[in-house]
Amino acid sequence: MAYIAIAECNVLRFFIFQKKGAIFDKIEPNIFKESPVLFIYSNNIKGEKRRLKMEKKKVLGISFGRKMSNCDVMVKEALMECQREGCDVAFIRADDLEINNCTGCIACVIGMMSGRGRGYCVKHDDFDILDEAIMQSDAVILACPTYETSVTGRFKTICDRIGPSHDITFRKARYDEGKEAGVPEEQLPDARAFKKRSAALISVGGAMTEEWIALTLPMMYEFTFPMGIDVVDTVEYYGAMACENVAGNPEMMKRMTRVGKNIVDSINAGDEDERIKYRGDEEGTCPICHTRLIQFSHDKKTASCLVCGSLGTFDIVDGKFTMHYTEEELNRSRLRWGGKLEHSTEIKTQAQPAGTIKNLKELKQPYADFNPGVWPVDENACGNVKK
Ligand SMILES: Cc1cc2nc3c(=O)[nH]c(=O)nc-3n(C[C@H](O)[C@H](O)[C@H](O)COP(=O)(O)O)c2cc1C
Predict the structure, then answer these.
(1) What CA–CA distances, in Å, run from 285 to 170, 180, 196, 254, 293?
(2) What are the pLDDT digits (tens) for 228-258?
């Protein structure tokens, strides 16, 4: 029925679905620049002129930094490149949103498992704005400052709100079961959750050595992995305090332009292998996430990638440390479907419901009765409690 024609337009390659016989012949450039849709003219099989409409690819930038400081500027530079390349872009400063911590009620997961919910938080706050923007996007570009060697509190809060409620293995299972049972679309998880998306992750730290930003980039995968978003580029910018603002660092700004280019290349790729291809500067020690965060097992004979959770062996050849993973272990990465499915399945099959320990109230009573409270303020010391 539908045939694919490929058209080249100064910078972007488009895949146009059109009826058999239609011949692509003209792109309307002004509309292409200003509108979220692209109009392409073609002749149909009878030689009649037809106007085809195609949505621009959407790239969402999220900065977790201070207003107009490094993260804001870096994300905006990458977004500007995406816009120049014909994408529809949006920008969110995470600190402009009021997003509450996850309370741990797990209603999101229980709802999906029981078939009564869509996988959303029972509470509504500005997370809904972020969620809608992510669902509309084809790619996300995130930049997060390093606080205490890792991501900021707000970044972690948002990750807790994303997973497990947005875990695609939970959502897909519920969606497919619901569809099969004839449940209306609006009562099921948002179908946009299953769209293939690409991401670039940028970590920023003031410190002059990369050891002080070591956990930030690995932790940033907590945003992408539950939703199955493929990270295609990563950048670690340290030593930020030595430059008043990254806008005055041409090398890093050039790298941000390349982040934008890499994202555009990914979302316009002709096939899935090309879309998910890693475009970062370094291969890292893990072939899946490309980070270097390795934890040795207790017997120190094996090690695992802390981002993926995949276990492997290692050796040192010519002084170079190398990890070796079996294909099975790579597929257990939580960045892949298999790793996520393993975890959602263990939750579905192993987590015990309330009421399984008969005398639980009795067992917990001593702890309910034990309330030592907090010490009174030491009036002789110079603390910070307002008197
Ligand atoms: C509470 C706090 C903790 C920080 N801890 C670190 C750190 O562990 N390592 C580091 O490299 N920079 C650290 N920094 C510096 C920030 O990462 C740096 O200022 C960064 O540029 C902030 O991003 P922004 O400019 O986009 O706001 C810390 C800053 C704050 C406010």
Answers:
(1) 29, 42, 25, 26, 8
(2) 999 999 999 999 999 999 999 999 999 999 9
**pLDDT tens, position by position, 40-90:** 555 666 666 665 567 899 999 999 999 999 999 999 999 999 999 999 999
Distance 219 CA to ligand 1 centre (A): 15
User: Residue 150 CA: which ligand 1 atom is closest?
Assistant: 8
205 lines ligand 1 (CB under 6 A): yes
Both tokens assigned to 292: 């270097």
* Ligand 1 centroid – CA 295 distance (Å): 25
Extract the tokens encoding 381: 């010391």
The token duo for 146 is 């390093």
Structure tokens, 163: 């997973």
Residue nearest to atom 2 of ligand 1 (CA): 147
Distances (CA, A) of 206 to 63, 238, 356: 16, 6, 50
Whats the size of the chain, residue-wise?
387
> CA distances (Å), 375 to each of 366, 367, 384, in order?
21, 19, 14
